[in-house]
Structures are given as structure tokens and as C-alpha cells.
């Protein structure tokens, strides 16, 4: 079996499954992902909030029908909102 080598600038590939090795969880990586969540051009969190507020039934129907690519991941959205609510509750001593 030929050895799988990553392209320049890419993470190493796992030999048993062919996927890229996952990132190590670090403060830098978490901050990068947080910035990416808010600035992703295709599926912005702000656009998702607008769609959920204006057309919630369509968002749910599309998601359940498998048309998920156009929407921000609702589970990431839930985690983000819970995290922000927790942060606000701690900071405001609620």
C-alpha cells in the first residue's frame, strides 16, 4: 500500500482511514474556530438567526429533508448560544 503524504501546508493523513489528523485542542485553535463561525461567508450565523426568526418552519423542513448545506449548523448554534448565555450570566453575576 503506498504511503499517504499530505499536500504542502496540510495536516498529516491517518494511514488506517485516510482522513487528516485532527487538530490538537488549543486556545489558538478554539479562537480560530470562533472567528470562523462568525465570518463564514456561505452560512453566516447572522443569516441563520434571520432565517430562524423570519421562516422557522422552512428552516426546520429543509433541515429534516436533508437540505442542510445552506444553513448554519443548528447544533453549533445551540452550543454557541448556551456558551454566550453562560458567559453573560457569569459576568453579570446572574
UniProtKB/TrEMBL annotation:
Pfam families: DUF3667
Transmembrane segments: 71-90
Keywords, in A-Z order: Membrane, Transmembrane, Transmembrane helix
Entries under InterPro entries matching the protein: DUF3667 (IPR022134)
Protein name (Swiss-Prot/TrEMBL): DUF3667 domain-containing protein
Lineage of producing organism: Bacteria, Pseudomonadati, Bacteroidota, Cytophagia, Cytophagales
